[in-house]
Input
Amino acid sequence: MPDSDDFWDFYWESHLLSMENLGKRAAILAASKLIRRLAQQTNQSVRLLELGCGEGQIIGTLVDAHSQLCNVYASVGVDHNAQSLAQCRRDYPGMRWVEGDFTDPDLLAGLGKFNLVLLVNALHEVFSAAYSPELGEVDVPVAKQRVAQALAGATGRLGPGGWLVLFDGLEPPGDPHQKRYIRFLNSQARDEFDTFAHQYRPFRISYREIGGPLSIELSQRDFTRYITKSIFLGKHLWETERLESYQYFTEEEFRELLARLGLELFELLTLTVNAEKWRYRVETDPSEAGFPQEHVLILAQLGLAKSQ
Output
């Protein structure tokens, strides 16, 4: 296939039309450029690893598109869900699919080294798994430590000059308990919020009405989780989405951890996902900062000194 950016822009525009999730699209576009760069620089086949690969949409789509540049048989997807991996094997034969917990050091050690490691909507599941029945919500210090360890393990799978592509939730800067004031645009939106507040598990959602049922006060932390989860209300996915917090690190925390792991940050892009799906539900106080950038795309390269 041609390797010009114009060709690949057109290719992905047509091939990703059915992929609704903005995070998956953003990760695929970024990884596609890195694969072409790596293949040109090294003149060797690129090895990909995706941790928390689900049904293989991301790594499978990339390897299919770049079959002349990627080492299909040496590219690996890891996930704990056997059913998802069965789908991977049907859709993307030839690749290696490993069932297991990608935070397990022994599992990671047996995978080898890779040119490109993908973590797309994966680390927030590690964070959310630190739910404490005693606390009635996620044990945040423990959860953050587990995420840091998981990212360190992923970094350890990078070969010399290897790249990490990470897409996930982003905790807004500042005090997470800062008060926000929002107004629901109709009673249905308020009813959906009540369902969210009652069923969302990672954190207790606290709020109070202000001058009527359509206006409430809540924390920045809870507001951010509401706008990233409200799109799943009433859908089958809500049964799993209500158990997970997308947000766990601020931008500053991501930067500090990447530096400690010897990763050189080349791009950190903050963005809002599915904005148009929730703007018709709620509006914020005009005097406040508006809706937060609640997701992040990170491209980082392992320094040669760390890869030795």
Summary: The two ends are 34 Å apart (CA to CA). The mean pLDDT is 91. The longest strand covers residues 158-169.
